[in-house]
């Protein structure tokens, strides 16, 4: 078993040091190791939950500035925003709310405690210097927290002793400019990685209702990310991750009555720090980490501050894992978290403990059983669990996999939701509503087939239910209400990765997502049909990618939005001296469409750039 653990460690190291191989290649071992399912390195073939992996090559080929644009071409993922890069955005996995999706960058939870719900400000998360993304789809985020209805696990840079780095510059429509750089390496047990990016765009008029001023709603973003590690000896490693994200944008429609304006700005500042220690003792591995997040947000109406909030999160987390036999493994841990909205003198703590058993009960038959206990300061004790199983068979020309998973969870109302209903802006019925926790449960069943030539095919059925979901009263604007009863999201994902030739790969996914609230109505902003068809071509130093996205049957507040198809294309040429040039056309056919009823989209946009890597 020690040899198996060593191979997993090597595989995990490879996944963070070299990510340029195409994931469809049968020779590629990089994609075979994932950490997102249980927070320890696990061969992907043994995992019974639904996981997608986005490589550095995927990110570079598609070229999107916003990480949300990269994620929404993955199966089961949809993203909406209120007017381009930097505008308020929501990332929904299998039709669930964005605040049920946890996002981590190099182990740092980047959730914002000052928002209406505790969630990641996806709008400010750009793709520069990101090398790998693992996506856990579904309500099986046991080891991350009972409210994790999906997990986005992001990796940056590499981790090796060789000096490496890159610098890139890009420009395009709306006077868009993006400059990014990175450098890393290691020496004598010390490794480091530092990256920075600076993005600016004049934007476009995002609001459908802004017909008089029709001003452009620009955005700027500066992100600095650093990671340092020190291997003290064979058994002990110390690490630090520091991150700063500063975004500033313009938007329309702020204020009420006489104070209403289309000249509004938003400022967002988030700083993250994570300090961790990893210790190996025999067959047991331990990691202890302290994480702190500081957030400030301010909305300004015509130069006069109209809304300011400030807060922080402190989190202590421990995860351990050990072999208990040649075929069995156990993972355990705890987390303690305090959320604070300091601008309103509000705070709350929650602590959780979890245990998961993993075993190969028979040859190529893998099962897990996990239990989690949470104690929330306001809503008391809750127990949730996850069960999963996967069976593999060797068949002629490949491998067949049958898998399934079931998980439960809960989400306590956020501090903001509770206090808003108690505050001066709420009125009946919200002011008379005592919010209680949401409870979730969901399961999935899947069949997958992978060929020796590198192609793969998968069909997944999922069924997720939310009891007593919390929502904002968009009809009367009274505050937050509870939708007493069961809302659900169920459907099918079809996923194809077809190696058409050595140089040509077809990727395709289709998601059918049937959603209903307790009144039997389709849940807002959740398309019933989502599909992506992509082609990538690699010939020597030239690469080409194209993607067509189909969106069908979705509704916003009070209206059904038109169906649409959007085509994006990109090309890149790499010279022998480390220089590459690239071009990207988003919405190549200038399709007019909307993701939200009140907001425009950008139309066709051409971007060109250059990158030097060493």
Automatic annotation (TrEMBL):
UniProt domain TonB-dependent receptor-like beta-barrel: residue ranges: 172-587
InterPro entries documented for this protein: Beta-barrel_TonB, Beta-barrel_TonB_sf, Plug_dom, Plug_dom_sf, TonB-dep_rcpt-like
Entry coiled-coil feature ranges: none
GO BP term, example: siderophore transmembrane transport
Membrane-topology descriptor: Multi-pass membrane protein
Organism expressing this protein natively: Agaribacter marinus
Region forming the signal peptide: 1-21
Similarity-based family: Belongs to the TonB-dependent receptor family. Hemoglobin/haptoglobin binding protein subfamily.
One GO CC term, this protein: cell outer membrane
Presence of keyword Signal: yes
Location of the TonB-dependent receptor plug domain: 44-150
Compartment list: Cell outer membrane
UniProt lineage: Bacteria, Pseudomonadati, Pseudomonadota, Gammaproteobacteria, Alteromonadales
GO MF, any single term: siderophore uptake transmembrane transporter activity
Keywords assigned: Cell outer membrane, Membrane, Receptor, Signal, TonB box, Transmembrane, Transmembrane beta strand, Transport
Protein name: TonB-dependent receptor
Main location: membrane
């Amino acid at each position: 078993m020690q040899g198996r653990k060593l191979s997993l460690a090597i595989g995990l190291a490879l996944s963070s040091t070299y990510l340029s191989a195409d994931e469809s290649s049968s020779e590629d071992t990089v994609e075979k190791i994932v950490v997102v399912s249980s927070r320890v390195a696990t061969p992907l073939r043994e995992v019974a939950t639904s996981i997608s992996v986005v490589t550095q090559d995927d990110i570079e080929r598609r070229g999107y500035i916003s990480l949300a644009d990269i994620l929404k071409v993955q199966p089961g993922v949809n993203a909406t925003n209120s007017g381009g890069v930097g505008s308020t955005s929501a990332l929904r996995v299998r039709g669930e709310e964005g605040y049920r999706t946890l996002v981590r960058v190099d182990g740092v939870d980047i959730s914002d405690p000052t928002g209406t719900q505790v969630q990641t400000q996806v709008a400010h998360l750009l793709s520069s210097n990101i090398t790998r993304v693992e996506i856990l789809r579904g309500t099986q985020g046991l080891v991350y927290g009972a409210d994790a209805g999906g997990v986005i696990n992001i990796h940056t840079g590499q981790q090796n002793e060789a000096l490496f780095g890159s610098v890139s510059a890009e420009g395009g429509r709306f006077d868009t400019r993006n400059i990014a750089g990175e450098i890393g390496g290691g020496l004598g047990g010390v490794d480091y990685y530092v990256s920075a990016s600076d993005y600016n765009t004049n934007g476009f008029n995002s609001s459908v209702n802004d017909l008089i001023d029709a001003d452009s709603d620009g955005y700027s973003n500066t992100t600095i990310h650093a990671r340092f590690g020190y291997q003290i000896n064979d058994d002990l490693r110390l690490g630090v991750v520091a991150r700063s994200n500063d975004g500033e944008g313009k938007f329309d429609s702020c204020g009420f009555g006489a104070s209403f304006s289309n000249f509004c700005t938003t400022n967002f500042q988030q700083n993250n720090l994570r300090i961790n220690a990893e210790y190996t003792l025999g067959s047991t591995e331990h990691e202890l980490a302290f994480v702190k997040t500081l957030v400030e947000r301010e909305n300004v109406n015509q130069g006069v501050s109209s809304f300011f909030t400030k807060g922080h999160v402190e989190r202590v987390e421990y995860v351990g894992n050990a072999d208990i036999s040649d075929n069995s493994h156990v993972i355990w841990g705890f987390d303690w978290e305090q959320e604070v909205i300091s601008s309103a003198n509000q705070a709350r703590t929650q602590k959780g403990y979890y245990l998961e058993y993993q075993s190969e009960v028979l040859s190529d038959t893998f099962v897990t059983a996990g239990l989690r206990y949470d104690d929330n300061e306001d809503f008391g004790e809750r127990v949730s669990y996850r069960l999963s199983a996967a069976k593999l068979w060797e068949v002629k020309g490949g491998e067949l996999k049958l898998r399934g998973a079931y998980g439960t969870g809960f989400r306590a109302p956020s501090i903001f939701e509770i206090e808003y209903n108690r505050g001066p802006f709420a009125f009946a019925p919200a002011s008379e509503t005592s919010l209680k926790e949401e409870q979730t449960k969901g399961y999935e069943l899947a069949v997958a087939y992978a060929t020796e030539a590198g192609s793969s095919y998968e069909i997944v059925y999922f069924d997720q239910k939310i009891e007593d979901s919390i929502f904002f009263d968009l009809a009367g604007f009274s505050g937050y209400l509870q939708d007493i009863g069961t809302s659900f999201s169920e459907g099918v994902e079809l996923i194809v990765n077809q190696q058409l030739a050595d140089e040509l790969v077809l990727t395709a996914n289709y998601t059918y997502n049937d959603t209903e609230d307790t009144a039997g109505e389709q849940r807002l902003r959740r398309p019933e049909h989502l599909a992506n068809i992509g082609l990538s071509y690699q010939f020597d130093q030239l690469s080409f990618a194209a993607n067509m996205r189909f969106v069908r049957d979705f509704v916003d507040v009070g209206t059904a939005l038109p169906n649409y198809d959007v085509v994006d294309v990109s090309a890149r040429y790499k010279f022998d001296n480390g220089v590459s040039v690239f071009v990207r056309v988003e919405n190549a056919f200038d399709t007019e469409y909307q993701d939200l009823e009140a907001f425009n989209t950008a139309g066709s946009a051409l971007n060109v750039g250059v990158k030097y890597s060493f």
